[in-house]
Amino acid sequence: MSDINEVNDVHDINVVDDEYVAGDVNTIDDGYDDDNDDDNDDVNDDVNDDVNDGASVLDSAATATAVLEFIATSLAEDPSAVSVDVSERQGKVVLSLSVGANDMGRIIGRRGRTAQAIRALVGAAGARDGVTTSVDIVD
Predict the structure, then answer these.
(1) 8-20 confidence digits (pLDDT tens)
(2) Do the Cβ atoms of 108 and 119 come closer than 8 Å?
(3) Could you give the CA distance from residue 29 to residue 46 in angstroms, rounded to a whole number?
(4) Domains recognised in the chain with CATH numbers
C-alpha cells in the first residue's frame, strides 16, 4: 500500500512542473547572446587599465608599505629604529626594511620563517593594490 502512495507523490511532483509559466524568474534562457562575448572583454580591459592611471607604481604601494611598517614595529624591541624605503626595480616595488642591530634576529626569525611570512603578507597587501612587491631586509 505504501508503494502506491510513493507513486502518487512522484506524480504530484510532475504536476508542479506542468504549472511552469513562460517568463518565470527561473528560466533557462537568460536573454543574452552568448556568441558575442568579445564585446565585454574590451570593457574589462579598460577598467583594469584605469586602476593605476595618473599614479606611479610607488604611490600605489601604500598598503604594502603600511603593512610592512606595522609588522616590523610590532616585532621590534626598538620601534623607533624601524624604517622602510620604497623604490622601483624592473616594474616591481622594492621595500627595503631597516631595523636596529638587536632586532635583526627577531625580524628574520629561525631559518628565515618570520621574514618569509612578512614577505607573504606584504605581497598580499601589494596584490590588493595591484602591484608586485619585494621585501629586502637591510643591515
Answers:
(1) 555 555 455 556 5
(2) no
(3) 29
(4) 2-49 (no CATH), 59-138 (3.30.300.20)
